[in-house]
Predict the structure.
Amino acid sequence: METSNVFDSGRQVEIQLRSAEGARTVKVRFPNDEEWIDRQRRRKIIIKHLGRGTSETTIPNAEEVDAALFAKIRLDDGGELDAYEASRIIEQLSQAEVDDVVAEGGAFRVVLRVPGGTTVHVLRMPSAKDVIEYRRGFARILDLPFNRQELTVNLAAAGTLYQKLCQTSEGYAGAVPIIHQAVAVKAVIDALDAGLDEREGNC
């Protein structure tokens, strides 16, 4: 994938696909927020409880959903890609890994590694109400037969909380994509939960 100093969701992205037949370049645009939200909503996460505290998690329709999104964002008219190749491309575009989370007074500084570089997000500390409302809106769980559950994720809930908490963001040429907002919000809540666990352990 091409790299640059800042993340620009508006630019064309070129991704190298390697296979036994050789390498080829695929040109796409970065999905918009509504497309990321729709992708996540359509990916049904199935959790099967196996007993003794163990479970198995699968996403049966992952490749099908990603292939549909890839068809929307592809810019070149090159050779056909199968659903698995399309899914590899979408997974690359969705990458956002937490490098660091640091508490700064009443806020958290979150450093993300994203395609093309590193970005920084400063989010104020969420209230207990913020966290509860986020969790209620972010995930929907349905109980299914045979010790299974279906989990549906709503990225819009993460976007709403990010907009409420965000003080500054760095490393972007334009708006922060919701797929990055969701990772930053989760990092802050995880850090907040970890801090609570540490304090309870020291009581």
Notes: Helices lie at 33-42, 62-73, 83-93, 128-138, 155-165, 178-201. Residues 12-201 form one domain. The beta strands are 12-19, 22-29, 45-51, 54-58, 97-104, 107-114, 117-124, 139-144, 148-153, 166-170.
